[in-house]
Design brief:
The chain has 286 residues and is of the alpha/beta class. The chain has one domain: EAL domain (TIM Barrel, Alpha-Beta Barrel). It is built from twelve helices and nine strands. The two termini are 19 Å apart. It binds calcium ion. Calcium ion (CA) binds next to loops.
């Protein structure tokens, strides 16, 4: 992209034109029962970015991450409500990056609005917080996380073992779940160091009352070795591929309407009747 402003506008256009969809990847217990699904953003059409991860990086760079995150959060909650959460009583894992929680435009209450509107109990929503980037203001961050915890959401520390925060993040957030990064899980049956690291993390988490999720299980032996360490939950291609939620009748575009994103001045129609709260807020810079 030529410059920040151009890229910013491009990302806001992606949101406004609803170019992302959501797929769900199962998180299962050792006996292969589905515990929940992680929502993963995917492109419906070309956006100019190689992957959703690249889009999120650009959104952080251009300070559009709060808008993108809220849009993806609504997609995830709406589609989950429309699909598996009605039938399977499974949990929903949603990725949230620390930049969003620390952003001045972050609206914590909007997740409650989405959950209430789509009728999902907050205890069924698990917020995955990645530790990819360095956090400078831990007390502000902890305040944001506490808000969600007090509301009943559960917290997972994502990609554990590869980021900046590591044990510091673990001790401050005190998550309900720790997702051990696939870097340590893949080849766990062949690599003694990975096995020892995963074993130590699992023992520590269990001592602190946290449940462990092994990410990136791609082979049967990785599953067997990881489950042999007492890990409770598993995710990866061997367990289940990401897939779209079953199509349903839930109305799309609630977020866009709520945010005043649609250019039409038509009154809001068809919104779930129980929604309350701020009717409009603007996209960052729009
Ligand atoms: Ca994740």
């Amino acid at each position: 992209m030529k410059n920040i402003k151009h890229e910013r506008d491009h990302i806001l256009d992606i949101i406004e034109n609803d170019l992302l969809t959501v797929h769900f990847q199962p998180v299962c217990s050792a006996n292969r029962e589905v515990f929940g699904y992680e929502a993963l953003s995917r492109f419906k059409y070309g956006t100019g970015y190689q992957s959703a991860a690249k889009l999120f990086e650009a959104a952080i760079r251009t300070e559009t991450i709060s808008s993108l995150d809220m849009y993806c959060r609504e997609n995830a909650i709406r589609e989950a409500s429309n699909g598996f959460m009605r039938q399977e009583n499974a949990c929903l894992f949603i990725n949230i990056c620390p930049e969003t929680l620390l952003s001045p435009t972050h609206m914590a209450g909007i997740t409650d609005e989405f959950a209430d509107c789509w009728d999902i109990p907050k205890k069924k929503i698990i917020l995955e917080i990645t530790e990819e980037t360095a956090i400078r203001n831990y007390s502000l961050f902890n305040e944001a996380v506490s808000y969600y915890r007090d509301k009943g959401y559960r917290i997972a520390l994502d990609d554990f073992g590869t980021g900046y925060g590591g044990l510091k993040m673990l001790s401050i957030i005190r998550p309900d779940f720790v997702k051990i990064d696939s870097h340590f899980i893949q080849q766990i049956d062949k690599d003694f160091v990975s096995l020892a690291v995963v074993d130590a993390i699992t023992v520590l988490c269990h001592r602190l009352g946290m449940k462990v999720i092994a990410e990136g299980i791609e082979r049967r032996d990785e599953f067997i070795f990881a489950s042999g360490l007492g890990i409770e939950f598993f995710q990866g291609y061997f367990i289940g591929m990401p897939a779209p939620a079953p199509a349903g009748s839930v109305k799309r575009g609630f977020f866009a309407e709520r945010c005043g994103l649609r250019r039409s001045a038509a009154p809001l129609r068809g919104r779930p009747g129980s929604c309350r709260g701020p009717r409009f807020y603007t996209l960052e810079g729009r």
